[in-house]
Amino acid sequence: MRKLLVLPILLLLVGCNLNRPEALQEGIWRAELQLTKTEVLPFNFEVTSRNALKIFNADEVIMVTDINYSNDTVVIKAPVFEGYIEAVVKDGTLKGSFINESLDRVVPFSAEIGKTTRFDLENETSSQDVAGSWETVFSPNSEEEKYIAKGIFEQEGTRVTGTFRTTTGDYRYLEGVMDGDTMKLSTFDGAHAFLFTGKVTDSTMNGKFYSGNHWEEPFKAKRNSDFELPDANELTFLNEGFDTLEFTFPDADGNQISLADNRFKNKVVIVQVMGTWCPNCLDESKYYSEFYNNNAGRGVEFVALAFEYAKTEEKAFSSIKRLKNDIGIPYPILLAQYGSSSKAEAQEKLPMLNHVLSYPTSIFIDKKGKVRKIHTGFNGPATGEKFEEFKTEFRGFVEELLGEE
């Protein structure tokens, strides 16, 4: 009788094992996003277990634990952001897409285990050194599209790291190579997929910037150690006749929140104009959450206004809740807009501002409810010294406002 029972149990176990999806193999993988017919964006990740991996961009390590299997397909979703990778797993390879449903964007994706290099080099050495500061103009031939930036790079051998700072924020952690006289840099964080390529001489750079497979633009740069971007505190201001900020928007629980609420009265308030889809906003939210937790009870409050491109209110609030939970944001995030992240439409929601130039933008309000400063953009940790300068300036100004009667 026992022998008769053993056979069905063995068959059941074997059957379950056959239906178990193939897991990602542990180790270093090299991934590619196919941006154009000729251009691919590479990045590396390390699978540490069946349900965990790390994405690498220079000094940034993104921990990913939202990994789900179904038959021969795996879905990989980085923290916070809406985009996800869906791919078929087969013999140490992945083939599929990077998908953002709200933006109707699909980018072909593939990956292979065992390749530890980010970019394949055509030349064994670099003929140029890109280290230093670069005065940069993106879309230089278009008056409507043109904007300025500052490239800041470090180079060791053929390896290059750094970022581009703009008036609205930075392009976060870029990593790549100097291949002969060609610079190649990339980053992938689950929201944005950026690739920069450029021909470099001693003093000039001419290249292209790709954002996923939906946008590309040229850029030109020249060495300039003295170049600085405009003061971030002077780009956004109140229109004539206004000295304060007014709004009423709902939180995820359906409560209508405004600056007239008791929690904000006689407090120093920082209003954060942001979006859950925005990597610079993520960096800023991490810093603001840390500051708030370390200064609770001192008379400072934060409130974020989220401008979401999610197509429905339900999906927008879902993204807000995910951001709050993943980062541990202790202050309220209100839904100011969904269905579009248009800055022009955002300005309509906040008509006292001359414009909404950037996500994020921070508005500093004193204890009497008056706007004292507006800071456009955010210099995140990828900017090094500029990030430290921002934190010093931020702490100093908040202390000044807290010290006022």
What does this structure look like?
The chain is of the alpha+beta class. It has 3 domains: about 20-115, Lipocalin; about 130-225, Lipocalin; about 250-400, 3-Layer(aba) Sandwich (Glutaredoxin), CATH 3.40.30. It has 5 helices and 25 strands. It has helices at about 1-20, 280-295, 315-325, 345-350, 385-400; strands spanning about 25-35, 40-50, 50-55, 60-65, 65-70, 75, 85-90, 95-100, 105-115, 130-140, 145-155, 160-165, 170, 175-180, 180-190, 195-200, 205-210, 215-225, 250, 255-260, 270-275, 300-305, 335, 360-365, 370-375. The strands form 4 sheets. A 9-stranded antiparallel sheet has the order 4-3-2-1-9-8-7-6-5, with no helix packed on it. Strands 10-11-12-14-15-16-17-18 form an 8-stranded antiparallel barrel. The protein is globular, with a radius of gyration of 24 Å. The model is unreliable at about 10-15 (pLDDT under 50).
Tell me the layout of helices and strands.
Elements: H1 2-19, E1 27-34, E2 40-49, E3 52-57, E4 60-64, E5 66-70, E6 73-77, E7 84-90, E8 93-100, E9 105-113, E10 132-138, E11 147-156, E12 159-166, E13 169-170, E14 174-179, E15 182-188, E16 193-200, E17 204-211, E18 215-223, E19 248-250, E20 256-258, E21 268-274, H2 279-294, E22 300-307, H3 313-327, E23 333-337, H4 343-349, E24 361-365, E25 371-376, H5 385-402
Parallel strand pairs: 21-22, 22-23
Antiparallel strand pairs: 1-2, 1-9, 2-3, 3-4, 5-6, 6-7, 7-8, 8-9, 10-11, 10-18, 11-12, 12-13, 12-14, 14-15, 15-16, 16-17, 17-18, 19-20, 21-24, 24-25
